User: What shape does this take?
Amino acid sequence: MKRVLRKQKPLYMLSLTFCIIGILALLTTLWKTSSQVFSSADPFSTFLSLLWIEEIVIINVVTFKLIYLVAFGDIMLILGVILWLLSRQWLVVPGKTVCYQCPFCKKKWKSTGDKALVHCPYCNQLVHPKIAEK
Ligand SMILES: [Zn+2]
Assistant: This one.
Protein backbone atom coordinates (compact mmCIF):
# COMPACT_ATOMS: atom_id res chain seq x y z
CA MET A 1 0.00 0.00 0.00
CA LYS A 2 1.32 3.38 -0.96
CA ARG A 3 0.06 6.70 0.25
CA VAL A 4 0.07 9.43 -2.33
CA LEU A 5 -0.69 13.07 -1.74
CA ARG A 6 -2.80 14.27 -4.58
CA LYS A 7 -3.62 17.91 -5.02
CA GLN A 8 -6.84 18.55 -6.78
CA LYS A 9 -5.83 21.38 -9.07
CA PRO A 10 -9.21 23.08 -9.74
CA LEU A 11 -10.12 23.05 -6.04
CA TYR A 12 -6.63 24.26 -5.14
CA MET A 13 -6.86 27.15 -7.60
CA LEU A 14 -10.32 28.05 -6.27
CA SER A 15 -9.08 28.06 -2.69
CA LEU A 16 -6.17 30.28 -3.69
CA THR A 17 -8.54 32.67 -5.47
CA PHE A 18 -10.80 32.83 -2.40
CA CYS A 19 -7.82 33.57 -0.15
CA ILE A 20 -6.59 36.34 -2.44
CA ILE A 21 -10.07 37.92 -2.62
CA GLY A 22 -10.35 37.69 1.18
CA ILE A 23 -6.95 39.29 1.75
CA LEU A 24 -7.73 42.02 -0.78
CA ALA A 25 -11.04 42.77 0.97
CA LEU A 26 -9.29 43.05 4.34
CA LEU A 27 -6.46 45.14 2.90
CA THR A 28 -9.00 47.48 1.29
CA THR A 29 -10.66 47.92 4.68
CA LEU A 30 -7.34 48.68 6.34
CA TRP A 31 -6.40 51.09 3.58
CA LYS A 32 -9.73 52.90 3.81
CA THR A 33 -9.50 53.32 7.56
CA SER A 34 -5.74 53.64 8.09
CA SER A 35 -5.46 57.45 7.93
CA GLN A 36 -8.15 57.96 10.56
CA VAL A 37 -7.09 55.00 12.69
CA PHE A 38 -3.46 56.13 12.90
CA SER A 39 -4.38 59.70 13.80
CA SER A 40 -6.71 58.52 16.52
CA ALA A 41 -5.90 58.18 20.21
CA ASP A 42 -7.79 54.94 20.41
CA PRO A 43 -7.03 53.16 17.13
CA PHE A 44 -8.95 49.97 17.87
CA SER A 45 -12.32 51.47 18.75
CA THR A 46 -11.90 54.02 15.97
CA PHE A 47 -11.35 51.17 13.57
CA LEU A 48 -14.43 49.34 14.84
CA SER A 49 -16.67 52.39 14.63
CA LEU A 50 -15.34 53.25 11.18
CA LEU A 51 -16.38 49.80 10.01
CA TRP A 52 -19.99 50.76 10.68
CA ILE A 53 -19.72 54.32 9.36
CA GLU A 54 -17.42 54.26 6.36
CA GLU A 55 -18.90 53.13 3.12
CA ILE A 56 -17.20 51.78 0.10
CA VAL A 57 -18.47 52.52 -3.38
CA ILE A 58 -17.82 50.12 -6.19
CA ILE A 59 -18.04 51.64 -9.69
CA ASN A 60 -20.59 54.22 -8.41
CA VAL A 61 -23.22 51.49 -8.31
CA VAL A 62 -22.83 49.36 -5.24
CA THR A 63 -22.37 50.98 -1.85
CA PHE A 64 -21.88 48.99 1.28
CA LYS A 65 -20.45 49.48 4.73
CA LEU A 66 -16.91 48.43 5.50
CA ILE A 67 -18.15 45.94 8.08
CA TYR A 68 -19.65 43.90 5.27
CA LEU A 69 -16.38 44.00 3.42
CA VAL A 70 -14.61 42.68 6.52
CA ALA A 71 -17.21 39.93 6.95
CA PHE A 72 -16.93 39.08 3.28
CA GLY A 73 -13.12 38.98 3.49
CA ASP A 74 -13.25 36.69 6.53
CA ILE A 75 -15.70 34.31 4.86
CA MET A 76 -13.55 34.21 1.73
CA LEU A 77 -10.43 33.43 3.78
CA ILE A 78 -12.18 30.68 5.77
CA LEU A 79 -13.65 29.16 2.61
CA GLY A 80 -10.24 29.36 0.99
CA VAL A 81 -8.59 27.48 3.85
CA ILE A 82 -11.35 24.83 3.92
CA LEU A 83 -11.09 24.32 0.17
CA TRP A 84 -7.32 24.15 0.44
CA LEU A 85 -7.62 21.38 3.02
CA LEU A 86 -10.15 19.57 0.85
CA SER A 87 -7.91 19.86 -2.18
CA ARG A 88 -5.21 17.86 -0.43
CA GLN A 89 -6.20 14.25 -0.35
CA TRP A 90 -4.26 11.30 0.81
CA LEU A 91 -5.01 8.48 -1.52
CA VAL A 92 -4.22 4.91 -0.67
CA VAL A 93 -3.00 3.25 -3.80
CA PRO A 94 -2.98 -0.51 -3.54
CA GLY A 95 -0.03 -2.13 -5.21
CA LYS A 96 -0.68 -4.43 -8.11
CA THR A 97 -1.43 -7.95 -7.00
CA VAL A 98 0.92 -10.43 -8.55
CA CYS A 99 1.35 -14.12 -8.24
CA TYR A 100 4.67 -15.28 -6.79
CA GLN A 101 6.28 -18.65 -6.92
CA CYS A 102 8.84 -19.86 -4.42
CA PRO A 103 11.92 -21.31 -6.12
CA PHE A 104 12.44 -23.78 -3.25
CA CYS A 105 9.06 -25.31 -2.55
CA LYS A 106 7.48 -24.28 -5.84
CA LYS A 107 4.37 -23.11 -4.10
CA LYS A 108 2.50 -20.07 -5.35
CA TRP A 109 0.91 -17.23 -3.50
CA LYS A 110 -0.52 -13.85 -4.23
CA SER A 111 0.83 -10.61 -2.87
CA THR A 112 1.16 -6.98 -3.79
CA GLY A 113 3.99 -6.15 -6.15
CA ASP A 114 7.20 -4.12 -5.88
CA LYS A 115 9.05 -6.46 -3.57
CA ALA A 116 12.56 -7.59 -4.28
CA LEU A 117 12.79 -10.01 -1.37
CA VAL A 118 9.97 -11.80 0.39
CA HIS A 119 9.56 -14.57 2.89
CA CYS A 120 7.88 -17.55 1.37
CA PRO A 121 4.70 -18.09 3.43
CA TYR A 122 5.10 -21.86 3.11
CA CYS A 123 8.74 -22.67 3.78
CA ASN A 124 9.68 -19.29 5.31
CA GLN A 125 12.82 -18.94 3.19
CA LEU A 126 13.90 -15.49 2.16
CA VAL A 127 13.59 -15.64 -1.56
CA HIS A 128 13.77 -13.59 -4.68
CA PRO A 129 10.32 -14.51 -5.79
CA LYS A 130 9.70 -15.52 -9.33
CA ILE A 131 6.65 -13.77 -10.66
CA ALA A 132 4.45 -16.51 -11.92
CA GLU A 133 1.83 -16.29 -14.62
CA LYS A 134 -1.65 -15.89 -13.29
ZN1 LIG B 1 8.88 -21.76 -0.29
